[in-house]
Amino acid sequence: MRNKISRVPVREQDPKLRASNFEEVCYGYNDEEAMLEASRCLGCKNPGCVKACPVSIQVPQFIYEVEQGNFAKAAGIIAADSSLPAVCGRVCPQESQCEGSCILGVKGEPVAIGKLERFVADRARKDGIKFTERLPSNGIKVAVVGSGPAGLACATDLAKMGYDVTIFEVLHEPGGVLQYGIPEFRLPKEEVVKYEINSVRDLGVKIETNVFVGRTVTVDNLLDKEGFKAVFIGSGAGLPKFMGIPGENLNGVVSANEFLTRSNLMRAFDPEYDTPIYVGKRVAVVGGGNVAMDAARTALRLGADVSIIYRRTEKELPARVEEVHHAKEEGITFHMLSNPVEIFGDEKGWVRSVKCQRMELGEPDQSGRRSPVPVEGSYFDLEVDVVIMSLGTSPNPLIASTTPGLNTNKYNCIVADEWGATSRAGVFAGGDAVTGAATVILAMGSGRAAAKKIDEYIKGLN
Amino acid sequence: MYKIVKKRFLTPTICLMDVDAPRMAKSAQPGQFLIVRTHDKGERIPLTVCDYNREEGTVTIVTQIVGASSRQICHLNEGDSFTDFAGPLGQPSEFIHMSDSDLAGKRYLFIAGGLGTAPVYPQVKYLHSRGVEVDVIIGAKSSSLLILENEMRSICRNLYICTDDGSYGEKGLVTDVMRKLASKGERYDMGVAIGPMIMMKFATITAKEIGLPLIVSLNTLMVDGTGMCGACRVTVGGKTKFACVDGPEFDAYLVDFDEAMRRQGMYRKIEEEADHKCKIGLN
């Protein structure tokens, strides 16, 4: 019989304290807590958690090793399937994946798989344990476009198979959304992101920054002139959407991408860095996804009074439950069933207020969520000096438009099958560039699938 | 790292650098820009491409000291390196897609304001290499801010120079020269104006008066320069465009310059405060 205790709570930084710093919110488990939590796992013979994990981490096996205190062994089991465990343990939507399929969750609380994954990864890092096993080099070059989760996962698997992999990244720091999108207080950059990216480098993967594929070099040049046998495109979905309402180009209206890039990639929150960020006194964030929560909580930490405007109800919020919970704890106000219709400025063109219309829920739409319907004549004004638009992102059309024969759909997403094969032989794609904005782990899953297919493709060439 | 292989001051406040960047040198085109960082904690600073040497693998940039970041650039010396040098970014000028028969017999007028002479240079050089007749107006505040005069003279048909204070060339604004050329009966198929936003605004008004189709290159705020942030949004023909990926060149007649100027100033106050570090300890 397994240990029938309730889920071991994880220690967190006090909400009042953390509302004004950028240190990590969640402290994670210590050895005892992790071993205790691990003892709750039933070790199912046919585990739902593994099936629900996009990269198929052998969850019961690694949890068993944690329970036994064999932390290095647990890390080895995870490393076989994921190169970014300290990242995923922090940012995966476990409630809808591994933990959502945990049998314990039917009647009670699921095993804290995410927190255990994070514990194992953090522990291995502190103990200096690395997993650099790979097959001897076969000398065959493969190019990966984008150093976000999809590209890193694809590069990792290809390097382990012996390929000579170069990742091309347009920004000055590798990591993609891990670097520019997710804030320090949720995902520490120096300690976690850089470390895990260096682990990918330790496998022999080269990363060339400041290269904009489509401009600096084209996919065809990589294939025809630079000797790459295949190209994997994991360029993400970086283009921000706007609402198209009056006043959207006033000073003080920014995309969540801009706001977060300034704070995360450029580290504008740290006075030692040169890049400025304008926060204002009162901030409205429009949207209800993880990015909206990240932007809101960043603005709060920079000293603003922050509210979130969302057109549905709390039940429909696409953000992770934990992020919503943390945002509320920290003092962010939620205006549910509200939608901005116009932004007003002062005589100098700076944001003064945002006019919102009240909404109610109607029939379910294509996504299965009840769609918001405007309530006629019901408006309210919110006095703010900054509006952050967090309405989702779409892929940058540049690569497709500079790669003849590479098909895209009407959302600018590259058309690829479940293995990443595109309309062009030798060109593979995965992650948000294919699906539109999704999650870190789904991108990693597609990168791994493509690595397998690229290996088959290259072997078939001979 | 991207090494500065040559540096010279064109004026006491404007410097030209050839930077070792082989990939970019191979792919850069007239009309495009790039982004530099001078150190690990530095901003991403957009600069226009002034020239490129595909054989030697260098890209030329021209920088004027106006604030903290541009001062950091100009303080780098030959042998020093940029931490980052990314690009080329943005769409190349439209004429590079034009065939020889499309370009044959076409006449271009370039209108350069101050530092805008730097991005005008590769465009004129390119058209000159394809046998297109090009006239150039360079306007500067005074002779001490005039750059690339000789380089430009060697590749264009007529070079007209004006200064606000009359210290060199004609006394007056580029718009005065535009009107004068029009009244003399000079006709051009296309104009390209690059310079400060206010100069491009008035060049556009004048171009409309004299019936000159005009392209402008917008130097908006940017963070990533790859379409990610939207700091560079401009309204063109009533639609929101991103200067970094849809531009930087647009049909001048359609650009909302007043909005573009207002947006350009969004961080001015913060930057001025950052630039002015008090030496007597008041802050």
Summarize the structure.
The complex is a heterodimer of chains A (about 450) and B (about 280). Chain A is built from 17 helices and 15 strands. By secondary structure, chain A is α/β, with parallel strands linked by helices.
Largest beta sheet: strand ordering of chain A: 3-2-1-4-15
- Helix-residue proportion of chain A: 25-40%
Overall pLDDT metric of chain A = 94
Q: List low-confidence stretches of chain B.
A: none
The string of secondary-structure elements of chain B, in order, is EEHEEEEHEEHEHEHEEHEHEEEEHH
CATH class group of the largest domain in chain A: Alpha Beta
Structural class of chain A: alpha/beta
Q: Could you tell me the number of beta strands of chain A?
A: 15
Task: Write down the CATH class of the largest domain in chain B.
Answer: Alpha Beta
Relative strand content of chain B: 25-35%
Strand percentage of chain A, roughly?
A: 15-25%
CATH architectural type of the largest domain in chain A:
3-Layer(bba) Sandwich
Question: Secondary-structure blueprint of this entry?
Answer:
The complex is a heterodimer of chains A (462) and B (283).
Chain A: H1 15-18, H2 31-38, H3 48-52, H4 59-68, H5 71-79, H6 85-91, H7 113-126, E1 141-145, H8 149-160, E2 164-168, H9 177-180, H10 189-202, E3 206-208, H11 219-224, E4 230-233, E5 239-240, E6 253-255, H12 256-263, E7 282-286, H13 290-301, E8 305-309, H14 321-330, E9 333-335, E10 338-345, E11 351-364, E12 370-383, E13 386-389, E14 393-394, H15 398-401, E15 427-429, H16 432-435, H17 440-461
Parallel strand pairs in A: 1-2, 1-4, 2-3, 4-15, 6-13, 7-8, 7-13, 8-9
Antiparallel strand pairs in A: 5-14, 10-11, 11-12
Chain B: E1 2-11, E2 14-20, H1 22-27, E3 33-37, E4 45-48, E5 51-53, E6 58-64, H2 68-74, E7 81-82, E8 84-89, H3 100-103, E9 107-113, H4 117-129, E10 133-140, H5 149-153, E11 158-163, E12 170-171, H6 174-183, E13 190-194, H7 197-210, E14 214-217, E15 233-236, E16 239-242, E17 249-251, H8 257-264, H9 268-275
Parallel strand pairs in B: 9-10, 9-13, 10-11, 11-12, 13-14
Antiparallel strand pairs in B: 1-2, 1-7, 2-6, 3-4, 3-8, 5-6, 14-17, 15-16
Helix pairs in contact in B: 6-7, 7-8
